[in-house]
Amino acid sequence: MKKIKLSENLELSQVVMGCMRIADSNLTENELLDLVEKCLDMGVTSIDHAPVYGGYTCEKIFGDAVLRKRPELRDKMQLITKAGIVCPGHYGNKTIYYKSTKEEILKEMDESLEKLGTDHVDLLLIHRPDPLADPAETADALETVVKQGKALNVGVSNFLPSQMTMLQSYLNIPLVTNQMELSVKNTENFFNGVVDDAFTRRIPLMAWSPLGGGDVFKSTDEKFVRLRTVLTAIAEEHKTTIDAVIYAWLFVHPVRIAAITGTMNADRIQKAVDATELELSYDEWYQILEASRGYAVP
Ligand SMILES: NC(=O)c1ccc[n+]([C@@H]2O[C@H](COP(=O)([O-])OP(=O)(O)OC[C@H]3O[C@@H](n4cnc5c(N)ncnc54)[C@H](OP(=O)(O)O)[C@@H]3O)[C@@H](O)[C@H]2O)c1
């Protein structure tokens, strides 16, 4: 498995296991433990969480099934979690909102550690930019969790380059990644400055919903029908599956992209692992881009 270095004390596996769907998967505790062990065996050692996944349940499901049963697995994995989304009803609130105050981040950090069954995560991300946040306060919170040893590294998710620059300007530690939607479904972040910004900072990106949340396989929209036609032809050429081609489309990018899988199916996660060895030509990369956008570059 290829590793992606984010800092002196953090390397992620290029394929990251995402835990957003573990509550919906209805896996038993033993089945979830078995899936995590299979991932570790495949070299998928990085695991992505957030407090809000599964309506605030996924971190605890993982902690109960994995780390409270097999605490020795903790040192074999890199845990990522996030902070700063408040779902409706959580504090009696009517609407979802983003909150990156110091109080909220420190509280969410402690709750995540408790639920996951660990004393630290390897990476804490601000989940989404909070338009009401004072960046000095958010930076103070991030430095505090690192000083306390509760998070070894910090980063962001869904941040524009300018938002990252602003937050970084208040921080004495580096933001080590930006976790963004990047896929053959959503190609926009390749062209709006997000990738350029990552290169400028010398940091890798993490791609969420790399299979477009499954739309690439199921949707009958013209865009996805067009994409499937091109992906199938390229997959046949490489004697592989369309899932592997979709992941490879991200992995061949020199900015260094770690893709977070969403499936709870080990065979489907294996397709992502296979893709780390798959080379795509410039022509194939552009054929997929063109199929996604519906037009050729000028
Ligand atoms: N930072 C953020 O704001 C953010 C936002 C969203 C997600 N995330 C992270 O990204 C992770 C992945 O997101 P995602 O779940 O949307 O990822 P995804 O991999 O794009 O989509 C997963 C969906 O695709 C389906 N799928 C996978 N392979 C398939 C195949 N061969 N045929 C048909 N369907 C297939 C899965 O179904 P099966 O389960 O049946 O295989 C699942 O429903 C999450 O777990 C989370 O950790 C982060």
Automatic annotation (TrEMBL):
Q: Which Pfam families match?
A: Aldo_ket_red (PF00248)
What the entry lists under SUPFAM superfamilies is as follows:
NAD(P)-linked oxidoreductase (SSF51430)
What range does the record give for the signal peptide?
A: none
Q: Which InterPro entries does this entry report, sorted A to Z?
A: AKR (IPR020471), AKR_Detox_Biosynth (IPR050523), NAD(P)_OxRdtase_dom_sf (IPR036812), NADP_OxRdtase_dom (IPR023210)
NADP-dependent oxidoreductase domain location is 15-290
Q: Please give the superkingdom of this protein's source.
A: Bacteria
- Recorded protein name is Aldo/keto reductase
Where does this protein come from, organism-wise?
Blautia intestinihominis
